[in-house]
């Protein structure tokens, strides 16, 4: 009985380890490293951007997404790898840039997800540093439902991260400037999305059940 107990306990502990271990990345090109550019290309139209960066789409009405490499002198160097992007909320119109990411597996409504990315805003041309909004969508070219908002810092990277419960199933994670804050040039890199691991408490509960079982059998 003892060996069976310890085998069960070990299984429960390894289950807990699996639950709290490294999360599976759902984005295929969240750092923009997979692209066909040879150097910085500013102000790509949505279709130009999509031709340059596989598995990432563009659909904002600003339609001028910047793809920048390590040699670019605006803002901080890419926070991951050699490439970053920048999204622009125009100064005098409500036009914003927007992108969406392909997912390895679709988002499942009701499940909890962790999202994180690095953001910095630059005042070279625009005064503001408006928030960046993240959504879940079934359409690569529409924002879908807002699930997270993060506020960038001036000139240096800050990691913006949060957890959200998916409002519905979704095939794309979407990103845009907050349309309510015009005049913002926000640099972005290092996007990650993963399912929040099942609570380790499940494993702890099963360990507790085994301990109770052991007490009973010991009597
Ligand atoms: Ca990158
Ligand atoms: Ca631009």
Any chance you could write out the topology, listing elements then pairs?
Elements: H1 2-20, E1 41-44, H2 46-52, E2 56-58, E3 65-69, E4 83-89, E5 98-107, E6 112-122, E7 132-137, E8 145-150, E9 153-154, E10 158-165, E11 170-177, E12 184-195, H3 201-218
Parallel strand pairs: 6-9
Antiparallel strand pairs: 1-3, 2-5, 3-4, 4-12, 5-11, 6-10, 6-12, 7-8, 7-11
Helix pairs in contact: 1-3
One calcium ion binds at residues 31-33, 78, 80-81, 83-84, 189.
Provide a short characterization of the protein structure.
The chain is built from three helices and twelve strands. It has 219 residues and is of the alpha+beta class.
Descriptive overview:
The two termini are 13 Å apart. The model is unreliable at 12-19 (pLDDT under 50). Strand 7 and strand 8 form a beta hairpin. With 219 residues, the chain is α+β, with helices and mostly antiparallel strands. The protein is built from three helices and twelve strands. It has helices at 2-20, 46-52, 201-218, and strands at residues 41-44, 56-58, 65-69, 83-89, 98-107, 112-122, 132-137, 145-150, 153-154, 158-165, 170-177, 184-195. Helix 1 packs antiparallel against helix 3. The strands form two sheets. Strands 1, 3, 4, 6, 9, 10 and 12 form a seven-stranded mixed β-sheet that branches. The protein has a five-stranded antiparallel β-sheet with strand order 2-5-11-7-8. 20% of the residues lie in helices and 37% in strands. It has a single domain, classed as Galactose-binding domain-like (Jelly Rolls, Sandwich), CATH 2.60.120. The longest helix has 19 residues, at 2-20. Residues 31-33, 78, 80-81, 83-84, 189 line the site of one calcium ion.
